[in-house]
Amino acid sequence: DSGVTQTPKHLITATGQRVTLRCSPRSGDLSVYWYQQSLDQGLQFLIQYYNGEERAKGNILERFSAQQFPDLHSELNLSSLELGDSALYFCASSGDSSPLDEQFFGPGTRLTVL
Amino acid sequence: LAKTTQPISMDSYEGQEVNITCSHNNIATNDYITWYQQFPSQGPRFIIQGYKTKVTNEVASLFIPADRKSSTLSLPRVSLSDTAVYYCLVPNTNAGKSTFGDGTTLTVKP
What we know:
The complex is a heterodimer.
Chain A (H helix, E strand, L loop, with lengths): L4 E3 L2 E4 L5 E6 L6 E8 L3 E9 L2 E5 L6 E5 L5 E5 L8 E8 L9 E2 L3 E5 L1
Parallel strand pairs in A: 2-11
Antiparallel strand pairs in A: 1-3, 3-8, 4-5, 4-9, 5-6, 7-8, 9-10, 9-11
Chain B lengths: L8 E5 L4 E6 L9 E6 L6 E6 L2 E4 L4 E4 L5 E6 L8 E6 L14 E6 L1
């Protein structure tokens, strides 16, 4: 158990819909990372927040957005969903903002878009 | 961002030493090399990190030659439970990004 929690574990929805994935980092960690893992694209870095502020951006689509709240939990919002958005979405946390810090990954949310 | 190249897959047998090599030709001076392990349907888990020469912990060793254009993750005496995907990544401290490559799928056979 990494100490990072993600909800929900599974999510099934239809194309065009909007969903919110939630992540609670390890106690004391200030950074939260979001990754997307689909079968054909491996693990893709989406975005990082550090202490409430956006720190780094990866291959995140405009239909996707994220935020980190004062209690440090984070949410990833996915809108206008497409079939290709079906994937495992991982959240990771680390103590500091540097990508050198060990990242602790949550169990993931499996999103299925029908 | 330093791009990494690893073999797509490797097979081994229980008890053998496994070496997985990663190429990162355009690694920057202040970049480190980090390895993660991922089991199916689980998030990746940190294994080891190094800058140069050799780093060893209770799980693995990491060998980095002087030019730092490649690195080798060494897993001593693997068991069936070491079957996983192993990712080499070079976190870019300037851009603040961590880019995982395609990883190496290691299959350990009895």
